Amino acid sequence: MSDETNPPTMYAVASSDRLKLLMERTGTGEPITSRELAAEAGVAHGTIGGLMSGAQRVVPEDKAEAIATALGVQLRVLWVEVERQGRVFIPKQAAV
């Protein structure tokens, strides 16, 4: 089956609090604003704002990877893969 017919793997942010914490101290030790993170990751500022507020929980794998890379962390530090086959698992937000 070609990749064109397969939907992208989706990732849910493990915790908006963890995202905020990682933004306060990125892999370089420096803070990053939501606008800077959006620009560096190549995603809309509204996506970052939605992830921070909890209004948005899920993004495609390429965006999840870009955000993790911009923060200087591995994908699984911030993201949880959403199950396939019609079932969706979105983890409960947990405090960091």
Features:
96 residues; 3-stranded antiparallel beta sheet; mainly alpha
Structure description:
The protein is mainly alpha-helical and 96 residues long. 43% of the residues lie in helices and 10% in strands. It has helices at 16-24, 34-41, 45-53, 61-71, 75-78; strands at 10-13, 58-60, 79-81. The longest helix has 11 residues, at 61-71. The model has no long low-confidence stretch (mean pLDDT 86).
In short:
The chain has 96 residues and is mainly α.
Category from helices, strands and their pairing: mainly alpha
DSSP, total strands: 3
Determine the number of helices (DSSP H or I, runs of at least 4 residues): 5
From the alpha carbons, calculate the radius of gyration and give it in angstroms: 13 Å
Coarse morphology: globular
Widest beta sheet: strand line-up: 2-1-3
Element order: H for helix, E for strand: EHHHEHHE
Main beta-sheet strand count, sense and barrel state: 3 strands, antiparallel
What do the pLDDT scores average to?
86
Helix percentage range: 40-55%
Strand content: 5-15%
Distance between the ends: 40 Å
Q: Which spans of ≥5 residues are poorly predicted at pLDDT below 50?
A: none
